[in-house]
Amino acid sequence: MSDAEQQLGTSKALEELKCLRGSIDNIDAALVHMLAERFKCTQKVGHLKAEHNLPPADPARERIQIERLRQLASDANLDPDFAEKFLNFIVREVIRHHEAIAAESGN
């Protein structure tokens, strides 16, 4: 039991806290699965790029995606700066994977 749960004892607030945390856990699991699917797709993109000797990074697409994600975040009442930082992290990982794939392919 967490410190917060101990402080709340057996109150109605504890039940609400447990319910909210259950939803958060489900959302976290969904995020992990969605990221796994996203990276499956980007791995295929990496192989396609390597096969056709394309560069691992695509700065023009990245700029478009950042603007798109910032707008989506704003529309969803999420901090666009946070959304951009999150996408930049993902893009760095994708580029790293694409570089590794290209190196394995001898490109």
SSE arrangement:
Layout: H1 3-8, H2 12-51, H3 59-75, H4 80-105
Helix pairs in contact: 2-4, 3-4
Structure commentary:
The protein is an all-alpha fold and about 110 residues long. It has helices spanning about 5-10, 10-50, 60-75, 80-105. Helix 3 runs antiparallel to helix 4. The model has no long low-confidence stretch (mean pLDDT about 95).
Structural class: mainly alpha
**In oligomeric terms, what are we looking at?**
single chain
Low-confidence parts lasting 5 or more residues at pLDDT below 50? none
Cα-based radius of gyration, to the nearest Å = 20 Å
Count of DSSP strands = 0
What integer is the average pLDDT? 93
User: Describe the biggest sheet?
Assistant: none
Distance between the termini: 53 Å
The arrangement of helices and strands along the chain is HHHH
Work out the helicity level. over 70%
Q: Shape, please?
A: elongated
Per DSSP, the total helix count is: 4
Fraction of residues in β-strands: under 5%
Outline of the structure:
The protein has 107 residues and is mainly α. The chain contains 4 helices and no strands.
Based on the model shown, name its key terms.
107 residues; single chain; mainly alpha
